[in-house]
Amino acid sequence: MRNLHIEFDIVSVKFVVLVIQQFMSLFLKFINDLFKMFGQFVHAFQIVFGKGLELLNGVENINQFQDSSAKEIKFTEDLSF
Rounded CA gap, 81 and 72, in Å? Predict the structure, then answer.
């Protein structure tokens, strides 16, 4: 009767170890997928942020062009009598 109790203990310990190994495997896969998703989010954010900066730079160029053309128009108005 004592040997049967010891066998049950050994089987239950092996089962617990197996469950913990499977849990850790799934947990590490989950963490890996989480980091991949975060990397994709950062990449998408970089693209959107970069395009936003390009648009702002384009607006600044348009404003500079508009300012310089407005100055040219003022000069021509000042020179004509």
Answer: 16
Q: What is the C-alpha to C-alpha distance for residues 60 and 54, in angstroms, rounded to an integer?
A: 10
Rounded to 5 degrees, φ, ψ at 80 are -85, 130
Find where tokens 């963490």 sit: 31
d(CA 74, CA 67): 11
**Nearest partner of 14 among 25, 26, 2, 22, judged by Cα:** 22
Query: d(Cα 24, Cα 9) in Å, to the nearest integer?
Result: 22
- Between vectors from CA 51 to CA 49 and to CA 57, what angle results, nearest 5°? 105
Q: What is the pLDDT of residues 41-62, one digit of tens each?
A: 999 999 999 998 888 888 777 7
